[in-house]
What we know:
By secondary structure, the chain is α/β, with parallel strands linked by helices. It has helices spanning 8-33, 51-59, 71-80, 93-101, 159-162, 178-189, 198-212, 223-229, 239-246, 277-287, 290-300, 307-312, 315-320, 328-331, 344-355, and strands spanning 37-43, 62-68, 88-92, 136-141, 143-148, 172-174, 217-218, 234-238, 252-255, 262-270, 335-336. The strands form two sheets. Strands 1, 2, 3, 4, 10 and 11 form a six-stranded mixed sheet that branches. A five-stranded mixed sheet has the order 7-6-8-5-9, with helices on one face. The radius of gyration is 23 Å and the shape is globular.
Amino acid sequence: xxxxxxxxxxxxxxxxxxxxxxxxxxxxxxxxxxxxxxxxxxxxxxxxxxxxxxxxxxxxxxxxxxxxxxxxxxxxxxxxxxxxxxxxxxxxxxxxxxxxxxxxxxxxxxxxxxxxxxxxxxxxxxxxxxxxxxxxxxxxxxxxxxxxxxxxxxxxxxxxxxxxxxxxxxxxxxxxxxxxxxxxxxxxxxxxxxxxxxxxxxxxxxxxxxxxxxxxxxxxxxxxxxxxxxxxxxxxxxxxxxxxxxxxxxxxxxxxxxxxxxxxxxxxxxxxxxxxxxxxxxxxxxxxxxxxxxxxxxxxxxxxxxxxxxxxxxxxxxxxxxxxxxxxxxxxxxxxxxxxxxxxxxxxxxxxxxxx
Length: 356
């Protein structure tokens, strides 16, 4: 196309016409989506209180919010409805990848999500969905060691948990969920956190069976409370959940072991079977607003991939919870959780054998 520089008068006239066109298009789009009801499923207590009411008021789109407890929970519900029943689902990265593989995730129209520009560049380089073609990141974080600094020395390695010193035996907990139970052992052994190699999983399992003898418990939900009470001294924890303990006792600290860790991402996926894709895109764009992202971080105490939002989070919050300040550049040096595909049953069997 041949370009030209318009005169001031031509430019003003063009802008006037453009304004009319934009108004007409915007008006028709609003009319089309107003009155629509979106059915969305998210984890409980993972949506800021005012996010949906403000979205409904601004767009005229109604939202029916369902809640799920785990990724497996919502995947089971989708399985029962052959990938339908919802417009948007919140799932972790590997499950977004699985939804794409099964044809259940809709290809996103980035032109309808202008606030994607608010994301850190690193947020488009997540290996489970390069370029955010089928999912939009909501929060992200990593897994590490959470400990009582007044009750034990600063840990440096996953081995401090896997092979604890005598004063820590019976005072440690590990996460029992598949990906995170095996993570510390795989990192110590130098294997991928996404390995599908049976021999590597067997080796990790042998190490974890020995560790089991030293544990207070496997605990995915109350480990930070055990730190607060002093029942535990050192636990495996997601960074955001460690923050829940820090909020009650500043002697609780978080550290990423020297062997490294994972990058987990919670995402929003529009389902291919949704009849309200335009309204769904509007919701994704609303969540990517700076004020929405800020509210998410302040509610769940997890980092959000929204750079503009993170810049607005109160400095006092970062001071209280230092892991909120882990930079994306560092975070992306860790391995991203991926879909295990046909190897998932092997992982599940391995974990069952360990936890027993």
